[in-house]
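Subgroup meeting minutes
Present: P.N., E.W., G.H.
Scribe: E.W.

1. P.N. recapped why we're keeping a running log of single-chain structure predictions: easier to compare across weeks, and new members can see raw inputs and outputs side by side.
2. G.H. added today's entry (199 aa).
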Amino acid sequence: MPTTTSHQYFRLYKPFGYISQLLSNDLRQARKKKFLGALFDFPKGVMAVGRLDEKSEGLLLLTTDGKWSDYINRSGIEKEYYAQVDGPIQQSAIDQMARGVIIGINGQKYKTRPCEVGLVKEPPNFPDRGKKIRDERHGPAPWIRLVITEGKFRQIRKMTSAVGHPTLRLVRVRVGPYSLDGLPYGQVDKINSDAIISN
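Output recorded in log:
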């Protein structure tokens, strides 16, 4: 897949509470919601590559290159997440997610592809998200790590709910070779065109 140096590529550490679009044409929504355009002066034509819902955090790629965006979304590259769930979670539930679980997509039942899932022994050191999550006094809230190769709407949240453990906090840390490494919370940096993957 050819890319041109005229296009621009970015990675963003999306904070909690932001919608994965630059702005809204709905003035009422624009007054009530937070949009990515408030975080950085993006060039004209930039689009988010995939989505993170308003309550989710972590790595979001953006670009002016529609072909690259389509490639990332459709190529089946790995996407790595950390999810804090309403626990305690048993190994049987982890194994069930790894094999694939039934979730709802557009009113239809869908079985997720086999993926990598594991319990995280040491809680990850993510920044405070700003809105408090219930503490251990209300029961365990362990972290699990998931690596998937698809990206259905709210897929991770639906997967953990399918095994009886709703997601309390969700952070995406990697999309293919691109990660959050060295990127502060809420910040944006450019991806060098030499680092752009293609098929």
